[in-house]
Write a structure and sequence with these properties.
By secondary structure, the chain is of the alpha+beta class. It contains three helices and seven strands; from the N terminus they run βααββββββα.
């Protein structure tokens, strides 16, 4: 079972970064592959169990479910329910921690999943670089606009 673990430092206070990331329906604001996002049945975006329907830039749709969210620990977990790509049993966790040296944020993002053996390298690259790394770079480069 592949496991992708990535982390970064964002030069912004942890509470401000958390305000951006905790919105389960806000990924389309900062994750480049996502064109649009909507929570099904108009439920609150921080309700455990809510499902977001995501439209990717290429028109494909993905459904993800919020498994857990803690404002106290600045963590959330989610899983993929439906996806057009060979990525199965996908569960991801995000955690933010304060970096007191410079009032910065440590961002940890990890996922476990299964994929057909021939697709594992491509799926690992997709999660690691096209989702996680792209998300880090987008928040880092667009922080001021996102935090406004």
């Amino acid at each position: 079972m592949p496991r992708v673990v990535k982390s970064t430092i964002i030069d912004a206070p942890v509470d401000r970064v958390w305000a951006i990331l905790r919105d389960f329906n806000g990924f389309d604001r900062w994750l480049p592959p996502i064109k649009a996002s909507a929570i099904e049945r108009h439920l609150p975006a921080d309700l455990i169990g809510c499902i977001r329907r995501v439209q990717l830039q290429d028109g494909a749709e993905v459904r993800e479910q919020l498994l857990g969210l803690s404002d106290l620990e600045m963590t959330f977990s989610y899983c993929l329910l439906d996806t057009p790509i060979p990525l199965f049993n996908y569960v991801a966790h995000v955690r933010l921690l304060p970096v007191t040296d410079g009032n910065r944020t440590f961002w940890h993002w990890e996922a476990r999943f299964t994929a057909p053996p021939a697709a594992e390298p491509d799926m690992t690259h997709l999660v690691s670089e096209l989702i996680f790394q792209a998300g880090f770079e987008s928040v880092r480069n667009n922080y001021n606009a996102l935090a406004a």
